[in-house]
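Hi there. Long-time user, first ticket. I'm pasting a complex I've been working with (about 570 residues overall). I'd like to know whether the download I got is complete or cut off, because the file seemed smaller than I expected. Thanks.
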Amino acid sequence: MNTTTLGAPPRTPRSPPAPAAAAALQAETAPAVVQARGLVRRYGAVTALAGLDLDIHPGRVTTLLGPNGAGKSTLVGLVLGRLRADAGTLQVAGHAPGSLAARRLTGAMLQAAGLAPQLTVQEHVALHSGYHPGARPLAETLALAGLQGLERRRYEALSGGQQRRVQFALALAGRPRLLVLDEPTAALDAESRRALWRTVRALADEGSAVLLTTHLLEEAEALSDRVLLLAGGRVVADGTPGEIRGRVAARWVRCVSGLPLPQLQALPGVVAATAEGRRVALRTGAAEATLRALLAADAGVAELEVTGTRLEDAVLDLLKKEAA
Amino acid sequence: MNTLTLLWAEAGAEWRKAWRQPAFAIPTLVLPLAFYALFAIVLARPGGGNAAYLMATYGVFASLGPALFAFGAGIAHERETGQLALKQVSPLPVPVYLGAKLLSCLGFTGLVVLALYALAAWAGGVVLPRGAWLALAVVHLLAAVPMGLLGLVVGLSFGGSAAMGVTNLLFLALAVLGGLWIPVFLFPGWMQGFALAMPTHHLAELSLALTGRPIAGSVPGHAAVVAGFTLAFAGAVALAWRRAHR
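Hi, the file is complete. Here it is re-exported in full:
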């Protein structure tokens, strides 16, 4: 497989120490909850997943980041047993995906999901909790999803964001060992989004293996222990959020400079440098550091310009570099 | 929660869903009773025996509404709105999901059938031995099983609006051609042939036999045909479920 691996993902120092440390310890020793090897899935002539390997560990948030059509939802569909792989193997805690045993261990929030509009929040959560042996108490689930005060409201009377939170409540109600969240914050406002992130982090620290998909770099950064950058059905980068940011959240620094190309490439933060005569373009993961060093090294810098890159561009960039 | 408790909870949710949707609940409950009141009581000639005859056939008709609309159009709608997907990834066993729908369907049918019997006994003057009432109730309730399975095939095979259309067509064909509204012996000969292809006709013949009417064919014969339809529909459900799931 043609992946770019950036080394084993260490835990980020974001979480509170005691439970996180315990979870981290567990993560090192516990076997992966999801194990995928060489997964292939095609839709007619289109290859949505082209031989993907993936391990998802307990106590960690593993994020699939990528533009639309990268293969994120296909992978989610396979993990949940809603799709069948054309080749490769996939296990959820040793069970076949989609089997009753696997579903008992899994909580899922789908991208396009609905619930019966006539039932109330409490009825939905209570009913779903009954599906899982060892589900959380109702009040705990409602609190974790931020649904207090809405218990008696019918689903149809909720806002889009509130409906999404009910779906989140159903996903976490069963204390799942595997929590699958497919674009969970798509319809949420900024505040609900942050609340959901906090809860997801807490669930991971509790020991759940979390599989998250998103096309928002910010979301991947706020939550993940490990980010897989997906494009064209393949993993094009695999690392900590910081490492992925360095590769995809890059900025372009363009200017006219007299420095030779090797020296430009060696500037701090620079991941790629091109030059046409004296006109140079640097891609950097740390624009400020790069600029400081550049200005210090070359007093003659002119026509300086710093611009952002989009995730889609960064992914295309990585693909091109790989092909070269 | 064990399977039985789960089934009960899920059936309760189905029941509440149906009740809170008056557009489904009211026509389903009222239509058979209103038709029966009109044709068997208001428009009946005194002493014509229509009240007992139509009670037998309208009891079968009562099972059509909940079964075809809750299962047929209902499941198609749940598929389109992503409700079924959530159930499919949750650890709810498929038999419990389907069984709960069937139970709720039986509940609705039971309500209508009981009201129908009350109407027939008090306003229509229908008198039957206690055992016959009981046997009749069993046939009318069990009619919901093949009809529910048929609705399920439609719901799993068609999208929301197409399922609604197909369901309406089936509803009419099963009611009219099956002889639930107008006795089959009043049909022209070529139409009577269609009746034989309708499971509702055989259910109606069974019901008529229980009210003491002479029927064409034998009770075991009709019962065997109904069982055959039920098995065929169950097989079709299994196929359609597999196709819809993957």
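A couple of notes from our side: Chain A has a mean pLDDT of 85. The interface with chain B takes residues 80-84, 98, 100, 103-104, 106, 108, 110, 112-116, 118-119, 123, 126-128, 130-133, 154, 167, 170, 174 of chain A (CB under 8 Å).
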